[in-house]
Design a protein that fits this description.
The complex is a heterodimer of chains A (397) and B (442).
Chain A: E1 10-17, H1 28-43, E2 52-56, H2 65-71, E3 78-81, H3 87-100, E4 107-113, H4 139-144, H5 146-154, H6 158-176, H7 190-194, E5 198-200, E6 203-204, E7 214-222, E8 234-243, H8 260-273, H9 278-281, E9 284-286, H10 292-301, H11 310-315, H12 332-336, H13 340-355, E10 372-381, E11 384-393
Parallel strand pairs in A: 2-3, 2-4, 9-10
Antiparallel strand pairs in A: 1-7, 1-8, 4-7, 5-6, 8-11, 10-11
Helix pairs in contact in A: 1-2, 3-13, 6-10
Chain B: H1 19-32, E1 42-47, H2 58-64, E2 72-77, H3 82-91, E3 97-103, H4 112-116, E4 120-126, E5 136-144, E6 151-152, E7 161-162, H5 165-187, E8 196-201, H6 204-213, H7 234-245, E9 251-257, E10 261-268, H8 279-284, H9 291-297, H10 316-321, H11 323-326, E11 330-334, E12 340-341, E13 358-362, E14 368-376, E15 386-393, E16 398-402, E17 416-427, E18 430-439
Parallel strand pairs in B: 1-2, 1-3, 8-9
Antiparallel strand pairs in B: 3-4, 5-10, 6-7, 9-10, 11-12, 11-13, 14-15, 14-17, 15-16, 17-18
Helix pairs in contact in B: 1-2, 5-6
Classes of the chains: A alpha/beta (397), B alpha+beta (442).
Chain lengths: 397, 442
């Protein structure tokens, strides 16, 4: 892996996030302004104090104008980025590198998605003219491909595995119920989720991420200037991104029980950050639980579980708030909701709250011995995805 | 079926089939039975229910079969008789021709047309001794014509209408003697030489009476109970069935009652269709569907679709660029590593291969097995749910692809599947044809 890393070169000095909701009464611009205002308020800055901007949105707008017009920015460089569901992280990643290069002293990454104006359920990609030979499945159905493959490879009963992934949703709803910004704030039992009508294989709509409107924003500065803005900055320990070559779609070697792009991105990030035992070194992980089977596979790809053991670790409660390594303490995509362009920054927002010990008491993780958080954000489908991993820490090395 | 309940079962075109895709599948069976390779000089497609007007449907069949660029492609459309007319024209020609006759039968719920009709396609390769051993030799035939109003349907109308059957029968009865005698005369045969009479047509009463006149107690070849009356495809479907069950040297008379009478006499040859997909085997491996689903597929029952956007029309230029893949299921195989890429790719996923070192490889006649699968109840489909499978092919190659002709409960890892040419959806009147897989017939 050819990566020199970005450890301790850049710090986040403020993050803001809107509630994720079906915001029938808020426009995309309203959401952007709310998130940016929340972020500026945290450090007493204003838009003219920021040297450069990145706006991530999958399909709610095009070009830098998506940000510069609602914020009435004057003479500022603004770039719109898109990288499927990892769009928000991509915006943050670009801002970090711009600061690390020395080109700017302050940069802001904003992520936004306004999905609920389409009138349809789920997310709907802007149609690109094609020959009509591409897959047209819903994402839920595509992620469900991993369940029969996982059950067969590890000899797990398919009915039991279905309950395992429902337990993941149960945990994320438990956490989301303790998060005032989350879209779904009701606890759900795994049994109730299993009893619901199926939408993809045996998966129900409650195995899918919430579909919400929302925005989030973050400001980054050079690490050595971070304390000029805040007493408790978060230092970037690693940033990695892997864009797959789609070989999983055509290579019979691929067995649909792993996401190789995620495993590779994690490996790079652990190397950059100097992490050898993530399960014991990380205080928490915010991962891309777009569908319940995704989180199961990620536990193994991110090395929180041994191969073939993730399902047992889920049943053991290892990823609960009080577990060995808490995962998705804010409810994750499942319960917090998934405004595509905003989600990546939202994940960093939860690390911000937890590592600074500012999360609501009912979900603040109790172990104070660890000070590193991991964000995993992906876009695409099994066999063809982009995967982002970052690691954040409270101490500058 | 609604209303009257005729006996037997009927063949139904699936929601993702039309007369062109059924024609492709029939032709694939016909061509797969050849020992050598034969390049027809043209493909002729006949249907009373073509997917397109104005645009030639034979072209997509030509593309799906990957026929030679210089092979012609023509449609014979409109009347049911266009099928037998194309056959006669082909038999009188000296060319090697691929004939495809295909039909989807319509009829209002509970109508006799609904109860009697069956959807089917047949494909015949017409040639001479130079092309190899013959399945049957055409000995000669006749026509007898008269204008009368029997069945009719205006363009843009979905369903046919019929005049009182008792009148229509009289017209066929008036014509049969002339047609029969003329056919015997031109072939210098007598009635006693005929071992099998096959009678095709939409009018059951006329077929029964004429079989008595011709001295046939009950036509030996009859697919009414197993397929139904297949319109444009009916005559050649019955002929194909007769040839699958006849002995070499037998004389077969094909009598077609369709706006007049056509008689064709054949002598069964030494050659047999070698495909395991005979008409009988297909009938025996059928899937059954509910009447509700039948009505849905026929467009006679609108059901609530998933709340997802309907697909956009495909791009003509993109489809033309990708025609070998889209229509022919031609993948690419890397020269050095041998890795098969579906869809075809200029760049290999194996780093030992160099850019642009790929050879085309046809996947259309391969088989594969299911690696894993999913069932999508949310995605737009004309007949939800959609079953999707990751398929590994024998000899290499993998693709995630729709698995059709299956109940979601019946999918299992490891099951054998084969490619099949289907219509994925229609948008802005443009049919999106591509390949799916279906369970292999055991």
């Amino acid at each position: 892996m050819a990566s020199n890393g970005i450890k301790d070169k850049v710090a986040i000095i403020s993050i803001g996030c809107t509630p994720f909701r079906e915001h029938w009464d808020k426009s995309r611009d309203d959401l952007v302004i709310d998130a940016v205002k929340h972020t500026f308020d945290g450090v007493n800055l204003a838009s003219e104090d920021i040297d450069a901007y990145w706006i991530g949105t999958a399909q709610s707008g095009m070009s830098g104008l998506t940000l510069s017009m609602p914020l009435k920015l004057e003479g500022k460089p603004v770039t719109r980025v898109e990288n499927f569901c990892a769009t928000g992280s991509e915006a943050l990643r670009q801002a970090c590198y711009a600061v690390a290069s020395g080109a700017y002293d302050t940069a802001m990454a904003v992520g936004v998605e306004k999905v609920k104006d389409s009138g349809y359920q789920g997310l709907n990609a802007f149609p690109i003219p094609t020959a009509g030979t591409n897959r047209t499945l819903t994402a839920a159905a595509m992620y469900r491909l991993v369940l029969p493959a996982y059950a067969k490879k590890y000899g797990v009963d398919e009915g039991e595995l279905r309950m395992v992934v429902a337990k993941i949703a149960e945990k994320n709803h438990f956490n989301g119920a303790r998060n005032p910004l989350a879209q779904f704030r009701r606890e759900m039992s795994a049994e109730a989720i299993c009893d619901m009508a199926a939408v993809a294989g045996q998966l129900s709509v409650f195995d899918c991420a919430g579909v919400a409107d929302g925005a989030a924003a973050a400001i980054v500065v050079p690490a050595d200037k971070a304390y000029e803005y805040t007493d408790k900055p978060l230092f970037i320990k690693a940033l990695s991104l892997v864009s797959g070559n789609g070989s999983g779609l055509m290579d019979p070697e691929y067995d649909y029980t792993t996401f190789p792009e995620c495993a590779a991105a994690a490996q790079d990030a652990y190397l950059q950050a100097g992490i050898t035992n993530p399960r014991e070194e990380l205080a928490l992980a915010e991962v891309h639980d777009c569908f319940t089977p995704t989180e199961l596979i990620l536990m193994e790809d991110l090395k929180f579980s041994e191969r073939g053991q993730g399902w047992e670790d889920v049943l053991n409660g290892d990823f609960a708030l009080d577990g060995a390594i808490p995962v998705n303490t804010d409810g994750g995509l499942k319960s917090f909701g998934h405004p595509v362009g905003a989600s990546g920054i939202r994940m960093h927002y939860e690390c911000w709250l937890q590592l600074r010990r500012e999360a609501p008491a009912e979900r603040q993780i109790s172990d104070t011995s660890r000070n590193l958080g991991l964000v995993h954000n992906l876009g695409g489908y099994p066999g063809e995805m982009v995967s982002f991993v970052s690691i954040l820490g409270t101490e500058k090395g | 079926m609604g209303g009257t309940t005729p006996s037997g079962v009927r063949a139904v075109c699936s929601h993702d089939e039309d007369t062109a895709t059924m024609g492709v599948e029939a032709a694939r069976i016909t061509l797969s039975s050849l020992s050598g390779s034969i390049n027809p000089s043209a493909v002729w497609f006949s249907s009373s229910n073509p997917p397109y007007m104005d645009k030639t449907n034979a072209n997509v069949i030509h593309a799906a079969l990957q026929l030679d660029t210089n092979a012609a492609a023509y449609d014979f459309g409109g009347a049911e008789k266009s099928g037998i007319g194309a056959l006669k024209a082909a038999l009188d020609s000296s060319k090697t021709l691929l004939l495809i006759q295909s039909d989807i039968r319509t009829g209002l719920p509970s109508s006799e047309d609904e109860g009697h009709g069956g959807d089917a396609a047949s494909a015949l390769l017409i040639g001479g001794e130079d092309d190899g051993d013959l399945i049957a030799r055409y000995l000669g035939g006749s026509s007898a014509n008269e204008e009368f109003i029997g069945r009719w349907r205006n363009p843009h109308e979905p369903n046919s209408k019929s005049w009182e059957e008792r009148f229509v029968v009289t017209k066929y009865l008036q014509l049969i003697d002339s047609a029969w005698q003329e056919a015997l005369s031109v072939t210098e045969l007598s009635s006693g030489d005929i071992s099998t009479v096959v009678i095709s047509g939409s009018n059951n009463r006329a077929k029964n009476q004429i079989s008595k006149i011709l001295g046939v107690e009950k036509p030996r070849i009859d697919l009414f109970e197993d397929v139904g009356i297949a319109g444009t495809a009916d005559a050649t479907l019955l002929l194909t069935h007769a040839l699958e069950t006849s002995e070499s040297g037998e004389i077969i008379a094909l009598v077609v009652l369709s706006d007049g009478i056509e008689v064709l006499l054949f002598e069964a040859g030494n050659q047999k269709n070698q495909s395991k997909d005979t008409i009988s085997s297909q009938i025996n491996s059928r899937n059954e569907i509910t009447y509700q689903r039948f009505l849905q597929w026929k467009g006679n029952l609108d059901v609530q679709p998933p709340n997802r956007p309907a697909p956009s029309r495909i791009s003509a230029s993109a489809a033309a660029r990708e025609s070998e893949w889209k229509h022919g299921f031609i993948a690419s195989k890397a020269e050095k590593s041998g890795m098969i890429h579906m869809p075809p790719s200029r760049v290999s996923a194996n780093p030992e291969d160099r850019i642009d070192t790929m050879d085309p490889i046809s996947m259309a006649n391969t088989s594969g097995h299911v690696v894993t699968y999913t069932v999508d109840r949310l995605v737009y489909s004309e007949s939800p749910p959609v079953v999707f499978a990751v398929v590994d092919f024998v000899g290499g190659g993998r693709i995630p692809i729709e698995l059709t002709d299956i109940d979601p409960e019946d999918v299992s890892i490891g099951m054998e599947v084969i490619p099949t040419f289907r219509k994925v959806f229609t948008a802005d009147g443009i049919h999106n044809y591509f390949w799916k897989v279906r369970p292999a017939r055991q």
